[in-house]
Structure to design on (360 residues):
């Protein structure tokens, strides 16, 4: 006898009728609208909508700078002190010294004076004074559903969105180097390098043997894997490798695990545009649905009164942007200024480490 399966959550008889009728009516009215399409200017990041929020973001836009590294825009920055202190997204400050563009035609070289790794925030100092500092929202955290706007450094709005999730922690994503390995008596030996990976960009080659990661000795493939897993996408790691008869030190930026073709969310997020490399591991965030480019993170996000509710820190999905809440930012600024969270000194690459360095 065939076995039949029953669902305990099935609807009661005829309970589908109202929902079915509503769906038919919605389809009839929605069809002409879908055929016409919504003009791009009326989307949340369209020109018309952004112009409508120009007055809301005016003050915050004056406290927003564009940060460039090597002549390329990498992030926005938030002026948090009139004496020339600017907060931005730390993981994008790779390469030559950062430059902050203040207003339309003023640019200032920036020095990194503090980094908070978990929040991916960096405090920059520029030689400027009497700057328009950001005004923060006082007291309560905005409610889910509240409209938020992200200002640009050109006195306008980048885009508009809605707070979609209350304050929460975002789990850390593990970083990947982008290689396959085999065991070798001298250490894990690279057998494959994946295109566009951190390993490929760092110039690693098949046959290289990795002997150290961030100063830690590596003897097995398992040790290499466990060591890499401690870091997240966007982290820069110094690797000591043996290539032929010579040792060399290289620096690699970890990437994200590959796209899972069976994960619908993964696919949709990738279709929505480029995402931030560091988009997890934050102790506190506010999530809103503003569509930002990664280089539009680091600046403030404001409520309808123009007060900053936080700093955008990552484009994490098709309609997911994370912001560090204002209260968390304010609690960090003094420590970032003090030098207690100073970035590590930059060491030259390509020079074999001394025994003292190797032992650390």
């Amino acid at each position: 006898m065939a076995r039949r399966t029953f669902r305990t959550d099935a609807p009661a008889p005829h309970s589908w009728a109202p929902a079915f009728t509503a769906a038919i009516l919605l389809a009839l009215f929605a069809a002409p609208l879908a055929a016409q399409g919504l003009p791009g200017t009326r989307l949340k990041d369209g020109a018309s909508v952004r112009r409508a929020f120009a007055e809301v973001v005016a003050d915050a836009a004056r406290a927003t700078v564009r940060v460039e590294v090597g002549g390329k825009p990498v992030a926005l920055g938030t002026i948090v002190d009139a004496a020339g202190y600017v907060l931005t997204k730390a993981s994008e400050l790779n390469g030559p010294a950062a430059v902050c563009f203040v207003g339309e035609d003023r640019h200032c070289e920036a020095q990194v004076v503090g980094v908070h790794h978990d929040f991916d925030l960096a405090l920059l100092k520029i030689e400027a004074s009497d700057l328009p500092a950001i005004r923060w929202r006082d007291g309560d955290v905005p409610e889910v559903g509240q409209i938020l706007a992200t200002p640009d450094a050109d006195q306008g709005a980048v885009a508009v969105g809605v707070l979609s999730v209350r304050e929460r922690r975002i789990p850390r994503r593990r970083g990947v180097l982008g290689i396959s390995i085999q065991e070798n008596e001298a250490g894990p030996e690279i057998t494959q390098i994946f295109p566009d990976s951190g390993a490929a960009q760092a110039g690693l080659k098949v046959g290289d043997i990795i002997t150290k990661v961030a100063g830690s000795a590596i003897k097995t493939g398992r040790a290499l894997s466990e060591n890499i897993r401690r870091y997240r996408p966007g982290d820069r790691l110094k690797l000591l490798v043996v290539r032929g008869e010579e040792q060399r030190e290289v620096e690699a930026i970890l990437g994200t695990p590959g796209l899972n073709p069976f994960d619908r969310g993964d696919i949709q997020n990738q279709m929505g545009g480029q995402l931030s490399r560091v988009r997890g591991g934050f102790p506190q965030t506010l999530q809103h649905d503003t569509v930002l480019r990664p280089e539009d993170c680091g600046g403030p996000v404001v409520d309808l009164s123009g007060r900053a509710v936080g700093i955008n820190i990552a484009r994490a999905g098709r309609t997911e942007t994370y912001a560090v809440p204002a209260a968390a930012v304010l609690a960090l600024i003094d420590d970032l200024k003090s030098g207690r969270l100073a970035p590590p000194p930059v060491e030259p690459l390509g020079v074999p480490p001394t025994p003292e360095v190797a032992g650390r």
Notes: The longest helix spans residues 16-36. The chain has two domains: 52-170+268-338, 179-255.
